[in-house]
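Memo to structure team: turn this sequence into structure tokens by end of day. - J.P.
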Amino acid sequence: MTVVERREVALVDLLDRLLAGGVVITGDLTLRIADVDLVRIDLNALISSVNEQVPSPWQELS
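Reply from structure team:
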């Protein structure tokens, strides 16, 4: 077993790393019966932290 395999990462640390760089999630889900599409869900999400270099898209309320 190598050092990388034994390394434990807390969920908070993992979320911090993901938000620091940003995450893009894309997926398609189709529920089909007898070659008839009943439900189709498209997912596109961008998850990122907000800081001075990447400002918030919403105006601050002051």
